Amino acid sequence: MAFLCRSAASLLKPCRAAPAVLSAARLYSSGGQYEYILVEKRGENSNVGFIQLNRPKALNALCDGLMREVGQALDAFEVDSGVGAIVITGSERAFAAGADIKEMQNRTFQECYGGNFLAHWNRVSTVKKPVIAAVNGFALGGGCELAMMCDIIYAGEKAQFGQPEILLGTIPGAGGTQRLTRAVGKSLAMEMVLTGDRINAQEAKQSGLVSKVCPVDQLVTEAVKCGEKIASNSKLVSAMAKEAVNAAYELTLAEGNRLEKRLFHATFATDDRKEGMTAFVEKRKASFQDK
């Protein structure tokens, strides 16, 4: 949640909430303009949803309006049958340098608790379609938390990850203490949360936080390629696979294995499972219909 640093925080301007009267589907299908993000489809078959955070002067600080727009774009891609994966990225300088501190500076406990502050940020983690974070530059505080809500993280060579909220007299509030600990282990997570220290892309790769490190200018291309590869598979079965992997964070080994078995058995009720195995036996490429 914390912003990059006090000097960077001075760049921020409070942002207005996105218009609630426009639904995500209407904004997306009509080509309506978002205020804080850029949205399009990418890939040879236009099957990868693409969301770019677009508050460059504020280093993509995550104001309430921006996060609501991200949620709207995700909702639109979720119901788009042509989209099989989603990429979220920022700029080469910053994926997102944190939450908008000016926006939350004067909030009270009553406002935060009564209004369930930051609850809508979790939309990223509940999307059924696979989401890839392409992280260049700073991913600090809320930016790091946003990346960790995604299913896969690709990092540019100069990316930096951190949870510096302690330096602002608070703690992570959008999953930083929970997801970071599960990703990198207790010792490193505790060090990052208690000191505010950052790790670079190579350290993030070694610790298991990211799956791939790319040259800065190739990062988005590689992330979209990964999205295309995912989108070429059955969207229905991909959702099952994602559910099974995510369950590993929540369930015991025995419970997780039971869920996996049920989902595995469930694939045998799909046309795509039949097509995939038949194509393998016939030595041809499978043609999935998402059924």
Structure, described:
Strand 2, helix 3 and strand 3 (85-89) form a beta-alpha-beta unit. A 6-stranded mixed β-sheet has the order 1-2-3-5-7-10, with helices on both faces. A 4-stranded mixed β-sheet has the order 4-6-8-9. It is built from 14 helices and 10 strands. The chain has 291 residues and is α/β, with parallel strands linked by helices. The chain has helices spanning 6-9, 24-29, 64-78, 101-104, 109-114, 123-126, 142-149, 176-184, 186-195, 201-207, 219-231, 235-247, 253-267, 271-281; strands at residues 37-42, 48-53, 85-89, 94-96, 131-135, 138-140, 152-156, 160-162, 198-200, 212-214. Helix 8 (176-184) packs across helix 9 (186-195) and helix 12 (235-247) packs antiparallel against helix 13. The longest helix is centred in the N-terminal third of the chain and has 15 residues, at 64-78.
Quick summary of this structure?
This protein is an alpha/beta fold and 291 residues long.
Q: What's the average pLDDT? A: 88
**Major sheet size, sense and barrel closure:** 6 strands, mixed
Overall morphology: globular
- The helix/strand series, from N terminus to C terminus, equals HHEEHEEHHHEEHEEHHEHEHHHH
Percentage of residues in DSSP E strands: 5-15%
Ranges where pLDDT stays below 50 over 5 or more residues in a row are: 1-26
End-to-end distance, in Å?
A: 40 Å
Radius of gyration: 19 Å
Kindly report the spatial arrangement of strands forming the biggest sheet.
1-2-3-5-7-10
Which structural category fits the helices and strands?
alpha/beta
How many β-strand stretches? 10
Number of helices: 14
The helix content, as a percent range, equals 40-55%
